[in-house]
Write a structure and sequence with these properties.
240 residues, Arc Repressor Mutant, subunit A, Alpha-Beta Plaits, 8 helices, 8 strands
Length: 240
Amino acid sequence: MGAQWKQKWRELAADQKGKIVGKLVREIQVAVKLGGATPEFNARLAAAIAVAKKQSVTRDTIERAIAKASGTGADAIQYQTVVFEGFTPHRVPVMVECLTDNNNRTSSEVRMLFKAGNLGTPGSVGWMFEHVGLIEAQHTDAGIDLETAALEADADNVEPLDAEDVETGRIGGRFFCETTRLDAVTKTLQAAGWQVTTSELHHQPKDYPDLSDPQREEVVNFLQALDGHPDVHRVYAALK
């Protein structure tokens, strides 16, 4: 999938607690911006809070993030979402979603990352991705048929989660739907007993370039540099 390249980075950066918390806080803020500050009526926010709690993010930090994003906290700030398109080394399409309070600063810095060492190049690649809703979820009944679960939830497609991403004794699925049905499909899965860990808008690659191992390593290093920028919220790359 377009985000699977990040697994190696997650393992290497597991000890960078502050950075992980920052990313989780940003996801909460994006969820509030898109669907409101009430988890009961915002499935994406509920999923983001659940993941944050699992990573030991404090309740106070979560509440401050919600207040900040909704404009009600003492340090309320207005964020905007900016998307950059281009290619990694070896012409792998990539879309970079940023959450920023200073578009000029973020735009300049992300462009510099693309230009560093002449590795990446800006360019229009949006047509190489499908904009969809993505829900990742697990169920305690490992015998559930994923296709049936997707049909009952009104999802358009489903694929199994990688074994290393699923807790022992559970089944995991990655459900895709139209962007307008993301909240409804998420809530239907939750009502059916699925534990939702991700509920978000997603850019799904339509095709994947063939790369050698050395080329893949160069691409992953470039993507890590992008993802390490504090304003970068999501990086979608056509890399398996």
